[in-house]
Amino acid sequence: MRAQASVLHLDLDAFFAAVEQRDKPSLRGKPVVVGGTGGRGVVSTASYEARVFGVRSAMSTREARARCPNAAYLSGRFEAYRATSQAVMTLLRSVSPLVEPLSLDEAFVDLEQAGLPDLEVPTVTAFAEDLRTRVREVTGGLTASVGIASSKFLAKIASDLRKPDGLVVVAPGTETALLHPMHVSVIPGVGPATVERLRRAGLHTVAELARVSEEELVQQVGRSLGQALHQLARAEDDRAVVPDRETKSVSVEGTYEHDLTDRRQMEAIVVRQAGEVARRMKANGLSGRTVSLKVRMYDFTTLSRSSTLPAPTEDAATIARLARALLADLDTSGGVRLLGVGVSGLADWVQEDLFATASETEDADAADTDPGQPDLPELLELEQAGARPRGTTWSPGMDVVHDEHGRGWVWGAGRGVVTVRFETAETPPGPVRSFPADDPALQRWRPPVEDPPEPQ
DNA sequence: TCTGGGGTCCTAGGACCC
DNA sequence: TCTGGGGTCCTAGGACCC
Questions:
Q1: Fewer CB within 10 Å of terminal CB in chain A, N or C?
Q2: What is the pLDDT of chain A when averaged over all its residues?
Q3: Measured from the CB, is A345 under 7 Å from any atom of strand C?
Q4: Is residue A22 part of a domain?
């Protein structure tokens, strides 16, 4: 907590719906609901006119239609939202170098770096009113709610207090007086499950939280959250405004109108999703080691399976093969409502691009268009150069096998997946390729079976 | 014919290593 | 031929946020 109110939180009001009303004047003043419009859709954003009817974010679209049949139901135009968000973030960065976006419609701004004459309440209040005016200008009329306080935590709470189109500045020294009467659910990170656990412990308000020892909170809700609650209940929060937070994962998922039962159709979907993940990774210069498959069953139970490669990849065919192999190990009888593919364990460098020539890059692109058929020219080359895995039989979990020339084959494996990479003493690690363990393409490289040892 | 999609963070258990 | 402990990595699941 700082001595002055120098953390600003800005939140665009009913953002997606507001962009739609801006771009389509006939929708202004009318209920607008943006979200999934299919049978299994949910509401992403409801305009304030729709909220009057009880429509809320995360509500099923079916229920929203029942409550507000006359609203306009739209599936969303993310290019427009991104462009509008970009305009706002650019504006914020022009007033302070320390801007931390939380999503398309939200950001923290550190006012200590904003060059204000001072950080007294009247000064930051005037600054925020001017900023809100400029947000309206650069967005074509969208309103923003702003909170300013001595910490991120309180700035975010403050921006919520006078939505929409509001401004709240929390004067230093008044933080706990504001906070203590509030319900525990105002604390970011306290959702329905935690509210219930705290309720069972007799804790409802922030003031009640503040009277409990850290040990007891940790016992109730776990170490990390317990420690956080102990501090936040006292308005203690020294988290910095951090610009440029790094991406940790990239994923694509889809829920289908009718449960999927055809394995071949599921495989085709997973391969397509892997291609989309790879495309987005390449567009952002990312590569990663862990490929995950997410499956939501007909009864909403959700399974995840993952497999970690020895080196990062952004190759569509590699991601697709791993995802398919993970799917192969799951029992999907009964039907599947959601499938998803993701990559995590990201490196911020793209291994192959560091060394690739123009023609090698073309080869990589060509492989992307052919996710079904494994192609192993690198391994063939290595084989022809005399490299062999030596003296051992492949088994799941085996790591690196070197030949007498120091050439290595990486065999990482598990859950029916074999991952292969070649490297030599002279070259950097080559591309990673992965296959289902029973893929016939692997057979030619599988080392000969050793004679079993003599029993003693 | 309840219950999205894109993320982040945390927990817990097992393997493995020192 | 018994007994630990800590650290790291990986996996699976879950809570939460917008």
A1: C
A2: 84
A3: yes
A4: yes
